[in-house]
């Protein structure tokens, strides 16, 4: 009887100890966030967008909105490389564009071009912005004539600025313009054991990732060296069939929807202008598109969002999923590194 009593006491103490440890477990934290401020030469605006567009047009410039938020590592990286560092891109922006900054989480009132008065946050929802940064460009008639979702390196961003400044949007769309630019071959396609050599994508039953690269892709080396080598990314990718395609190829492939086409025609049809651009399918349907730079944490969470079918619980936007997912990880004591 004494032995049994002692076992009960020991078990109770052990459970009490575990409960106490869990109760006082330290929460995780987000690391790698990057503080930044808009360059001092950004336009000081009353946030009447129609008025800002008119003022820019009177000065022979185009108007641009840079959407970001405090702590965004992609925003800090792009602001430094394309707006603050002394280079051709930053000089070009200063000369030919009026730029304002809006906070995707902000509360300042903005008068939109249609007369609606909304907060920065509500405007973000109105425009269905899901990336930070997002750049929106206007013509003199207050129409949006180009939009860039997510970080772009300085060279690729300069090509987009040229498209706007030369008013090439009057003749063609952005993707057509970018495809017409003579580009240097700077990237040699890298092999990866995760990639499958497939041309018929209609019979794949697993989650499917289709990666589009080309020989002029500046970020592709980084993608292979920093993203595909990350253990957590590899773990999430293990749930997928992964196919890599040359975005300039005219070879015949069959899409997940059963359509015969080529990689080149496919990216032109869906206007995928980022490399490496990635389409994520599940249950035979496109569920998410990665068309901007993502560091490992955000990248692997997009993969999880699709493979885990979290789009059922969060049908409106991946960002709703990401918010809850980060809170879940932090409460469980996991540190989240959002940096490169």
TrEMBL record:
One matching Pfam family: Thioredoxin_2
Top-level taxon: Bacteria
Listed SUPFAM superfamilies: Thioredoxin-like (SSF52833)
Keywords: Signal
Glycoprotein found in the keyword field: no
Thioredoxin domain mapped to chain residues: 12-166
Tagged with keyword Signal: yes
Stated name of the protein: Thiol:disulfide interchange protein
Signal peptide: 1-25
């Amino acid at each position: 009887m004494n032995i049994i009593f002692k076992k009960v006491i020991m078990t109770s103490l052990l459970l009490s100890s575990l409960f106490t440890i869990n109760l006082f477990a330290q929460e995780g934290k987000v690391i790698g966030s990057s503080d930044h401020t808009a360059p001092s030469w950004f336009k000081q605006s009353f946030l009447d967008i129609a008025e800002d567009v008119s003022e820019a047009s009177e000065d022979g410039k185009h108007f641009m909105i840079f959407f970001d938020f405090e702590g965004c590592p992609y925003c800090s990286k792009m602001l430094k490389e394309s707006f603050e560092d002394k280079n051709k891109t930053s000089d070009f922006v200063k000369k030919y564009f009026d730029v304002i900054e809006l906070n995707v989480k902000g509360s300042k009132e903005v008068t939109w071009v249609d007369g609606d008065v909304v907060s920065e946050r509500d405007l973000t929802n109105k425009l269905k912005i899901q990336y930070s940064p997002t750049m929106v460009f206007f013509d003199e008639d207050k129409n949006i004539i180009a939009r860039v979702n997510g970080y772009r390196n300085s060279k690729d961003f300069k090509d987009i600025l040229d498209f706007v400044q030369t008013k090439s949007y009057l003749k063609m769309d952005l993707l057509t313009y970018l495809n017409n630019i003579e580009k240097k071959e700077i990237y040699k396609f890298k092999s990866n054991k995760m990639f499958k050599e497939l041309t018929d994508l209609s019979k794949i039953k697993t989650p499917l990732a289709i990666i589009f690269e080309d020989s002029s892709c500046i970020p592709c080396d980084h993608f292979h060296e920093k993203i595909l080598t990350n253990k957590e990314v590899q773990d999430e990718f293990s749930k997928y069939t992964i196919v890599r395609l040359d975005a300039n190829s005219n070879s015949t492939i069959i899409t997940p929807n059963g359509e015969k086409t080529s990689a080149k025609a496919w990216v032109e049809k869906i206007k995928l202008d980022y490399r490496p651009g990635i389409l994520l399918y599940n249950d035979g349907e496109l569920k998410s598109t990665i068309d901007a730079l993502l560091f490992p944490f955000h990248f692997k969470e997009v993969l999880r969002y699709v493979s885990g079918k979290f789009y059922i619980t969060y049908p409106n936007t991946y960002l709703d999923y990401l918010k809850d997912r980060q809170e879940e990880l932090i409460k469980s004591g996991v540190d989240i590194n959002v940096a490169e």
